[in-house]
Design a protein that fits this description.
alpha+beta; single chain; four-stranded mixed beta sheet; about 300 residues
């Protein structure tokens, strides 16, 4: 059995290593792009750094508002949701973070997420479906998980991953356009042109795919860490395991379907995978396997 602290430390190290891998991958992509367009690596890094900075500032200052708006989250009335507010207030104090803004999403599917640009500007949103099926200890366990995301700086961590992935996607899109319109390779002769075209095709098509895999891997690591830290805050890993079990066994209404207003960008922010279960390999999942999360919590002390 693993302690709360062992799980937290192990997943923090793995997350940092994955983010370093992301940074290295970004530099490799920029090196190929620089060669493709006949630029020096230094100039390529400067141009890509500007793209990264502009995109990063937009995500940092507008990302949380975009996520809340697109998810359909509405400010929760304290009088209407006293248990929810009490749980958020208590667990924010336990995590030693300012009181987050509280939102409710009108959706039958049980789920929640945390977002914000920092601990002072953070929000926690829960669905009406989550409030309907969780008892108080289970609700507190889910809120503890989300408060842990804020306290662990996961919301900033995931924003960085989203910025890296988005910047790589933008650069890859430019490569694809250049490739289909002849590109720099079209102005060169022989073997050099062929190599450049191959580089353009590979970077344009494969770079976003690998960026997505790294981003999802980082997301899964942060989920494990938030589970462990959430269990530490409540001192009840079984409550969080029970909440996950209820979500696992929940069957949505055929007429309403899965969680509404979710995209590949916002999905990793949620407490559990908001998409339908799939037989696709776990490397393509936004979250760790729910059975594995339950197993780890049940074996935690």
């Amino acid at each position: 059995m693993a302690s709360f602290f062992d799980e937290i430390a192990r997943n923090r190290i793995k997350s940092i290593l994955m983010l370093l891998v992301f940074g290295a991958f970004f530099c490799i992509v920029i090196t190929f792009v620089s060669y493709y367009f006949g630029l020096s690596i230094e100039l390529g890094l400067v141009i890509s750094g500007v793209v990264l900075l502009i995109y990063g500032l937009f995500v940092y200052y507008s990302g949380d508002k975009f996520i809340l708006k697109t998810s359909g989250a509405k400010p929760a009335d304290k009088a209407a949701y006293p248990t929810l507010y009490s749980a958020v207030e208590g667990l924010a104090a336990a995590q030693q973070i300012p009181m987050p803004k509280v939102y409710v999403i009108n959706d039958q599917n049980p789920n929640a997420f945390a977002t914000g640009r920092n601990k002072k500007h953070a929000s926690i949103a829960v669905t009406t479906g989550l409030l309907a099926i969780m008892n108080r200890s289970e609700l507190e366990a889910v809120i503890a998980h989300e408060a842990s995301h804020i306290g662990n700086n996961d919301i900033q961590f995931m924003m960085i991953a989203i910025v890296f992935a988005g910047a790589i996607g933008i650069i890859a899109g430019i490569m694809r356009m250049s490739f289909f319109f002849g590109g720099p390779g079209g102005r060169r002769n022989g073997e050099s042109a062929g190599i450049l075209l191959l580089i353009g095709l590979l970077v344009g098509l494969l770079a976003p795919f690998f960026a997505m895999l790294i981003r999802l891997a980082i997301s899964r690591r942060r989920e494990y860490m938030a589970d462990a830290n959430g269990a530490r805050l409540t001192r009840s890993p079984q409550s969080l395991a029970s909440a996950l079990t209820k979500i696992k066994n929940f069957t949505p209404s055929p007429t309403k379907g899965p969680v509404h207003n979710v995209s590949q960008v916002t999905a990793p922010m949620y407490f559990s995978n908001p998409f339908k279960k799939s037989s696709i390999s776990n490397i393509f999942s936004t979250h760790p396997p729910i059975d594995e999360r339950i197993k780890r919590l049940q074996n935690m002390y």
